[in-house]
Amino acid sequence: MCDGGCGPAARREGGQVAGIEREPAEVRIPKAALDAFAAALSVRTVAMRTWPDGIEWMYPVGTWEEAHLEVALMPGGEEVWLRMSTDRSSVAVWTIEQWWEFAGELPGAAPQD
User: Which of 1, 36, 43, 71 has its CA 20 to 30 A from that of 104?
Assistant: First the structure.
C-alpha cells in the first residue's frame, strides 16, 4: 500500500527476471518519494548504481544517504521495478506501459502519440 496513493506501485506482482523469482508482497512507496523521483527524472538529475546481480537502479541525485525511491528497467524492457531504499527486499512491478503513462505526466514530457 502506498502512503498518499501511488497507483500501480501499491501492489507488486510476482515476476521472474534473470532467475530471480519473487513472491507477491505489499510495497510502501510514500507519495513524497515518488514525487521526488519524478522531479529528478523530469530535470534529468537521476543517478544509477549497479547491484551485484547486474540490475541498474536509478535514484534522485543527492539522496543516497536518505530514504529514496529506486527504479530499474528490467532486461527485455517489459517491466520496471520500484523499491524504497529503506526496504530493498520488496519491489513494486509496473509494466512498461504503466511506466510510460507515469513518465508522460511529468513536467516537460513529450506528448505521446
Answer: 1
In a domain, residue 112? The reply is: no
| Rounded Cα gap, residues 80 and 85, in angstroms | 16
- The pLDDT tens digits along the chain (113 residues) read 333 344 444 333 444 444 556 566 677 888 888 888 888 877 778 899 999 999 999 999 888 999 999 999 998 989 999 999 999 999 999 999 998 888 777 666 555 55
Alpha helices in the chain (DSSP H): 31-42, 96-104
- Cα separation of 37 and 3, whole Å? 15
Radius of gyration for the chain, computed over Cα atoms and rounded to the nearest angstrom: 13
Exposed/middle/buried for 71, CB within 10 Å: 0-12, 13-18, 19+?
Answer: buried
- Return all residues near 91 (Cβ < 8 A) that are at least 6 apart: 12, 22, 27, 81, 82, 83
Does 69 map to a domain? yes
Domain assignment present for 113: no
